[in-house]
């Protein structure tokens, strides 16, 4: 199992020079100071004024230099119109700074969640924000290191969900220790942000093997191998629905008439559930075995079969349905390497 932690430094190679090292050290010191100042966050998180920081962007620095040059030129040539223009532009910059800080002030982080993904896919961390003010918030986005989410607006007295996409490479836990919500509106002269120290975790399922693998052997109730019989040859009737039943076997026509949900039963030779065993997956290394088991889980769930998972030191009882599939995939994802 691989555990990836983002939002804090877990290790880095030795820098090649002092000039390359000092920006990273400054960022680390600032991040550590912010964590000591704010502590561990809990939902909901209100972005009050002590949490919101603001600095000029490159465009803002250029704009400030331009205003200063215009002011010097107007003073040198005693040009009143130049002085008026310089002060007008500087006033617009100050108003933009105030509005940028106000654009993020008092926004409420209501909740954060992420769905499991397979290795190689992108994990989308979704954060719900509330805007209780009578003014809209413009172009808010989530950021973590070099990863940036899509900017979104939050209308007055409404909620909006911001997403932070993060790529995944290996199975295991993808943990986010810290992220930020930022904005540079209006004009883009300043950037306001607030750090959120809210630990988030995404379970990354293993990458499944290619489709078309031979199905695992199915065992009878006595444990003998019965080949690939699936027990679905003949329809034998209906029975009341029980927790764990596959949605594929629900008699939806009966449920549509307002009656008790019923499940279709089939008669066949093999009544025992399908066991997906570690020893049955033949691979050159443990990760290849895990990929094969992952493919078997997806195929069995797609076929609506009841199956169990037998792993070294851990097993999942037979069952069916979406929750059972996630339970088995989670067991594979967290299996020690």
In short:
By secondary structure, this protein is of the alpha+beta class. 29% of the residues lie in helices and 31% in strands. Strands 3, 7, 8, 9, 12 and 13 form a six-stranded antiparallel sheet that branches. Strands 1-11-14-5 form a four-stranded mixed sheet. A four-stranded antiparallel sheet has the order 2-4-6-10, with no helix packed on it.
What does this structure look like?
With 337 residues, this protein is an alpha+beta fold. Helix 2 (58-76) runs antiparallel to helix 3. It is elongated. Residues 9-16 and 221-232 have low confidence and may be disordered. Strands 3, 7, 8, 9, 12 and 13 form a six-stranded antiparallel beta sheet that branches. It folds into three domains: 2-8 and 22-54 and 105-205, Sandwich (Immunoglobulin-like), CATH 2.60.40; 59-102; 268-333, no CATH class. It has helices at residues 18-38, 58-76, 80-104, 252-256, 286-302, 322-333; strands spanning 2-6, 45-46, 53-56, 108-114, 117-118, 122-131, 137-144, 147-148, 152-154, 158-167, 172-176, 179-183, 190-196, 200-205, 234-240, 262-267, 274-277, 307-311, 314-319. The chain is 29% helix and 31% strand.
Notable traits:
Immunoglobulin-like, 19 strands, 337 residues, alpha+beta, 29% helix, elongated, six-stranded antiparallel sheet, four-stranded mixed sheet, 6 helices, single chain
Name the CATH architecture of the largest domain: Sandwich
Give the percentage of residues in beta strands. Answer: 25-35%
**Unreliable runs:** 9-16, 221-232
Cα distance spanning the termini:
5 Å
Task: Name the assembly state.
Answer: single chain
Helix content: 25-40%
Number of domains: 3
Instruction: Please give the count of helices.
Output: 6
Mean pLDDT across all residues, rounded?
Answer: 83
CATH class of the largest domain: Mainly Beta
Number of strands: 19
Radius of gyration: 29 Å
Q: Please name the CATH topology of the largest domain.
A: Immunoglobulin-like
What's the shape? elongated
């Amino acid at each position: 199992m691989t555990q990836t932690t983002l939002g804090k430094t877990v290790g880095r190679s030795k820098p090649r020079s002092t000039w390359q090292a000092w920006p990273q050290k400054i960022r680390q010191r600032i991040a550590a100071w912010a964590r000591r100042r704010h502590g561990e966050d809990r939902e909901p998180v209100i972005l009050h004024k002590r949490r919101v920081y603001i600095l000029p962007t490159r465009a803002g620095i250029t704009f400030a230099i331009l205003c200063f040059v215009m002011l010097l030129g107007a003073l040198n040539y005693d040009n009143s119109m130049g002085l008026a223009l310089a002060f007008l532009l500087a006033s617009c910059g100050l108003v933009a700074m105030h509005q940028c800080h106000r654009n993020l002030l008092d926004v409420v982080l209501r909740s954060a969640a992420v769905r499991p993904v397979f290795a190689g896919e992108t994990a989308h961390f979704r954060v719900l924000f509330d805007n209780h003010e009578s003014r809209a918030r413009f172009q808010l986005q989530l950021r973590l290191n070099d990863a940036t989410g899509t900017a979104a607006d939050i209308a007055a007295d409404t909620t909006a969900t911001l997403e932070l996409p993060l790529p995944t490479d290996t199975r295991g836990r993808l943990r986010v220790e810290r992220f930020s919500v930022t904005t540079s509106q209006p004009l883009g002269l300043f950037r306001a942000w607030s750090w959120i120290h809210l630990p988030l975790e995404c379970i990354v399922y293993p990458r499944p093997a290619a489709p078309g693998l031979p199905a695992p052997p199915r065992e009878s109730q006595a444990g003998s191998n019965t080949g690939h019989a699936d027990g679905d040859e003949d329809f034998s009737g209906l029975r009341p629905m029980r927790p764990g039943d596959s949605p594929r076997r629900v008699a939806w026509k009966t449920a549509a008439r307002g009656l008790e949900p019923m499940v279709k039963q089939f008669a066949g030779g093999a009544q025992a559930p399908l066991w997906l065993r570690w020893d049955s997956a033949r691979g050159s290394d443990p990760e290849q075995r895990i990929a094969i088991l992952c493919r078997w889980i997806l195929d069995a769930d797609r076929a609506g079969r009841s199956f169990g998972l037998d792993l070294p030191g851990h097993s999942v009882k037979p069952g069916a349905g979406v929750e059972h599939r996630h339970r088995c995939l989670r067991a594979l994802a967290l299996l020690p390497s």
